[in-house]
Amino acid sequence: MIQPTLKYVPCPGPAAVGHPEQGHRMAYWEWNETGDAAHPHVIVCVHGLARQGRDFDTLARALARHARVVCPDVVGRGRSDWLADPMQYQLPVYAADMLALLAQLHAQGPIASLDWVGTSMGGLIGMGLCGETGVLPVPVRRLVLNDV
Known about the structure:
The longest helix has 18 residues. This protein has one domain: Rossmann fold. A six-stranded mixed beta sheet has the order 1-2-4-3-5-6, sandwiched between helices. It is 24% helix and 28% strand. The protein is of the alpha/beta class. The N and C termini lie far apart (32 Å). β3, α1 and β4 form a beta-alpha-beta unit.
């Protein structure tokens, strides 16, 4: 049975607990049954407020046959860093972190199509990014919102 790989992306912005320098790391779980690290179809699955990326294991396992599936742990959750300033836990920080993640994925291999699955807060992040022009490597092709 396929298992995810834990990876990290450096994110600009607020500092992490125990790290006086700027920035923090966001963890993400990558599901990729094809083994192609540069698979051109990417599906990002983002969890709700008090959850984590592994919430999507069943869905990600099924989708990994057709795409590179990425399930981040939003900062302050799961394996991601915690922010030093609790007032920084806000949607603009989360959206900037997702842009850093997409930039890293796009650098590993060009993203040809991008789908977004968002539960609650993850849906709000997705809607915010879809509402911006010129910030994503490619436009979101499919946006799935749950409990928003």
